[in-house]
Every structure is written in structure tokens, then in C-alpha cells.
Design goal:
This protein has an eight-stranded parallel β-barrel with strand order 1-2-3-4-5-6-7-8, surrounded by six helices. The protein has ten helices and eight strands. It has one domain: Aldolase class I (TIM Barrel, Alpha-Beta Barrel), CATH 3.20.20.70. Helix 4 packs parallel to helix 6. It is of the alpha/beta class. The protein is globular. It is found in: Cytoplasm. Its EC number is 4.1.2.4. Catalyzes a reversible aldol reaction between acetaldehyde and D-glyceraldehyde 3-phosphate to generate 2-deoxy-D-ribose 5-phosphate. Keywords: Cytoplasm, Lyase, Schiff base.
């Protein structure tokens, strides 16, 4: 197993809050906890960065980055809407965008459509990091590989396993390993969905994950043998 200190492991983590019932107070608490824990970023819903939500009081994050989701959680949005949502998030201060592909298009073998929608988002946020959520638990191995190829062809920066909201499940070691084998060292791989303890987090990193999406960050870091 990879040997990481607590601080090193924290730098893999997107500290995540995407519950529909989340309030701005919850997001501010998330931000404070991310700073305290030394997480790499927070991952939040796009409306939580709007001026209306912030009320003129920006999030206090220090060096912690902001990631925002687009086309979340279903992916069933036309490419122009995903691109506009991503562009607005970056304009509002997001450094990274985690977009959901049209999983149905992937299951139907329409990877031309998948690549086109990723490219539309990529072109809308040229200065930001783009992660592509492929919902790996809903795809077979051939489809996972093809989705990764589409993301790479569209110049994404990362492929990501899951939204954490799909009934098929979240990240698996097998999916992460396949995604890493497919993209090599050319793209990052983010494991997200159902990672609830230190052992699971480290298994994902050993399989090739370079970022982790966690909501229970404090618990996972507390289990780190340091």
C-alpha cells in the first residue's frame, strides 16, 4: 500500500458537499473544514458561488481550490447548457469543473456525442481544470475505455468515476485501475462515490487515482496511521 502522511493524503482530496438540501451555512462550514484539514479543494454545487448565495462575503479558503459540478447529477443536459453552466461557474470563481457526460449516449455507443459535449465544455473554460464524470458503475469495461478516450480527445484534464448519486454505485478499484491504464499519465483519474474510510481511499490511490472525492474527509484522515 502507498505510504502517505495525513497532509499528503489531504492533498488528494476534493472535500465535497453536493446534497440538494445544502445551505450556504453548510458550504461555509465545508470551506472552513477544508482549510483546517488541508484538503486540496472543495467541490460544491454551482449556485453556491453565485453573488446571491455569497451575499458579498466570499468563501474564506486560503490556498484551497474551488471545484464546481456541471450537468449534475444526470448528465441529461444539452452541451450548450453544460458549457454555459461551466463558464458561469468559472466566472463566479471556480478553478475546476466536474462535468457529467450523457451516460445514455455512452451506453448506446455514441462516443462522438460524448466527445462533442466534453469539447463544448472544454472550449467554454479554457483556463480551468476539467474533470469528466463517466459514471463508471453504469458502464461496461469497453464503454469505460471509450469514455476515457473521448475525454482525452476533447482535451479534458481528468476522468472521474462517479457522481455518487447513481443507483449503480460509485467508485471501484477495478474501474479506477482500468481508467488509469487507459489514460496513462496523460490525464488525472479521480475516484469518487462511496469512499468512506482510509483503507478504501488508499486502495483507490494504489489503483491509480490522483484525486479523491470525499464527503467524509475528516473521518478518513483521522484513520491515517501517522
Amino acid at each position: 500500500m502507498t505510504d502517505l502522511s495525513r497532509a499528503q493524503l489531504a492533498q488528494y482530496i476534493d472535500h465535497t458537499l453536493l446534497k440538494p438540501e445544502a445551505t450556504m451555512a453548510d458550504v461555509r462550514a465545508l470551506a472552513a473544514e477544508a482549510v483546517e484539514l488541508g484538503a486540496y479543494s472543495i467541490c460544491i454545487s454551482p449556485n453556491m458561488l453565485s453573488e446571491a448565495a455569497l451575499g458579498g462575503q466570499p468563501l474564506e479558503l486560503g490556498d484551497v481550490k474551488i471545484a464546481v459540478v456541471a450537468g449534475f447529477p444526470s448528465g441529461k443536459h444539452v452541451p450548450e447548457i453544460k458549457a454555459a453552466e461551466a463558464a458561469r461557474a468559472v466566472a463566479d470563481g471556480a478553478h475546476e469543473v466536474d462535468m457529467v457526460i450523457d451516460v445514455g449516449a455512452a451506453r448506446a455507443g455514441r462516443f462522438d456525442l460524448v466527445e462533442a459535449e466534453i469539447r463544448a465544455v472544454r472550449e467554454a473554460i479554457p483556463g480551468a481544470l476539467l474533470k469528466v464524470i463517466i459514471e463508471s458503475a453504469a458502464l461496461d469495461e469497453e464503454q469505460i475505455v471509450a469514455a476515457c478516450h473521448a475525454a482525452e480527445a476533447a482535451v479534458a484534464d481528468y476522468v472521474k468515476t462517479s457522481t455518487g448519486f447513481h443507483p449503480a454505485g460509485g467508485a471501484s478499484v477495478e474501474a479506477v485501475r482500468l481508467m488509469r491504464e487507459t489514460v496513462g499519465d496523460r490525464l488525472g483519474v479521480k475516484a469518487s462515490g462511496g469512499i468512506r474510510d482510509y483503507a478504501a481511499a488508499m486502495a483507490m490511490i494504489d489503483a491509480g487515482a490522483s484525486r479523491l472525492g470525499l464527503s467524509g474527509t475528516a473521518k478518513v484522515l483521522a484513520e491515517c496511521p501517522e
